[in-house]
Design a protein that fits this description.
The complex is a heterodimer of chains A (235) and B (126). With 235 residues, chain A is an alpha/beta fold. Helix content of chain A is 42%, strand content 15%. Chain A has one domain: Alpha-Beta Complex (Spore Coat Polysaccharide Biosynthesis Protein SpsA, Chain A). The longest helix of chain A has 18 residues. The chains are: A alpha/beta (235), B mainly alpha (126).
Chain lengths: 235, 126
């Protein structure tokens, strides 16, 4: 990976216990990449801990925008600073920086504009709850039906984007639960999407943002926005 | 159409005056933008007219084929309320979009400022 060409974006909300480990892992496996931490209005020491890692850029958002708003800040930074590639690695330590090479290989092989790190392409990673699997299966059917795309893990945030994708997503990025929407968005802009099988880690501390109470809302909201993203003719 | 004063119409008229006065004061004190006041003025006038001219409501009920005229009135008001709420949701969505863009710009601008300060102060210390 060439120096100064790839930006790693770490969206982080109250990840003071994980953030330095994540940065350390990225440094170890991807020494050539620049790191941008987007601190999404955390109330803990996330920003301070991130700044202690030398050479890491930290954007402090004045209020909590949610994952979509945080990641889009990364897209805007990557666009404005002329990066060719951007990788999203979540601040909770779930995504393994060592797997980025798989994403890069898949992008080179498929000639795609975005590569999704999928937990389900070849099964060698951890199992999620059945509710989550059910949701993912529903999305899989939706994508096949509406776009004719084979996407096994549409909710994965572990992704590699090229310059074209960065430019599109810096302008339009969905606000909450953005991952499935973003696929439709890029597809609608004529960009190619592929997947690479990756391993992921179970979270080290903190909880998933999607709780049992929120998951029906999550399903409804994401399904609706996928359908709308398909129907939208003007961006 | 005859003028007729009973308690409920008096109450309606007073209520509409309160709405109109409140909207007027809110706009004057800049708590409510003119754009949004328009629809409230319309609602205020509508209630005022409906409570002053009793025959109007019966005529309206007849016109749309509802036998109990006040329920036609309620239906109309509820429809208005729905439209108003829809309008509010649209406004909130716009605000959220703008707010998000502003927050992102602010965060990025702060980072640039930090970088420039570092450059000016000589690199190394924060």
């Amino acid at each position: 990976m060439e120096k100064g060409k790839t930006l790693i974006v770490i969206p982080a909300y109250n990840e003071q216990n994980n953030i330095r480990g994540v940065i350390g892992d990225i440094r170890a496996s991807l020494p050539g990449a620049d790191i941008l931490v987007v601190n999404d209005g955390s109330v803990d020491a996330t920003a301070r801990n991130a700044r202690q890692a030398c050479g890491v850029k930290v954007v402090d958002l004045p209020c909590n925008l949610g994952i979509g708003g945080a990641v889009q800040t990364g897209f805007k930074y990557a666009r404005d600073h002329g990066y060719d590639y951007m990788v999203q690695i979540d601040g909770d330590g779930q995504h393994l920086p060592g797997e980025v090479t798989r994403l890069a290989a898949a992008m080179a092989a498929a000639g795609s504009d975005m590569v999704i790190g999928s937990r389900f392409l070849d099964i060698r990673s951890f199992r999620t709850s059945w509710q989550r699997r059910l949701g993912i299966i529903i999305f899989r059917c939706l994508f096949r039906l509406l776009l004719g795309l084979r996407i096994t893990d549409s909710t994965s945030g572990f992704r590699l984007y090229n310059r074209k994708s960065i430019e599109v997503l810096a302008r339009f990025y969905p606000s909450d639960y953005p991952e499935p929407d973003a696929i439709v968005l890029l597809h609608k802009h004529g960009l190619a999407i592929s997947e690479a099988g990756v391993a992921m880690r179970a979270r080290e501390s903190g909880r998933s943002s999607i709780t049992a109470i929120k998951s029906p809302y999550y399903m409804a909201k994401v399904t609706l926005s996928i359908i709308f993203a398909c129907l939208r003719t003007r961006w | 159409m005859h003028m007729h004063i009973d308690k409920i119409h008096l109450l309606g008229a007073i209520f509409s005056f309160v709405i109109l006065a409140a909207v007027f004061v809110l706009v004057r004190e800049r708590h409510l933008q003119e754009k949004y006041s328009l629809v409230w003025f319309l609602i205020g006038f509508f209630i005022l007219v409906m409570s002053v001219f009793e025959g109007l409501m019966d005529w309206f009920g007849d016109f749309i084929g509802v036998y109990y005229a006040p329920s036609a009135f309620f239906g109309l008001l509820i429809a208005c309320a729905y439209l108003l709420l829809l309008n509010m949701s649209v406004s909130i969505s716009h605000l959220k979009t703008h707010n998000r863009a502003l927050s992102q710009e602010l965060g990025l601008a702060k980072l640039r400022l930090e970088e420039l300060e570092e450059k000016v102060n000589g690199s190394g210390h924060d």
